[in-house]
Design a protein that fits this description.
This protein is mostly helical. About 80% of the residues lie in helices and about 0% in strands.
Length: about 80
Amino acid sequence: MLLAMEEIFHVVASVPIRMLQRISDRQAMNPAKQHRKLHKLLSKAEICLTRDEAQKILKKAAKTQKKLEKGPQDEIDTQISF
């Protein structure tokens, strides 16, 4: 019974470790790239015709703006060494 519990724990515990490894391999955010992305989204927003398109653009713009506000230093600090 204990062996079965250990296997379950190993499977559950190994998923976040893989996620943390992927996060640690990421590079810092490039603010210039995020500004270009916002400019492209602005251009798309000016010509969109449907409400669904506008909502998708707004979601993407909010995500990009959040990344810019967070800044590159926060992403570097969250990297974990293995």
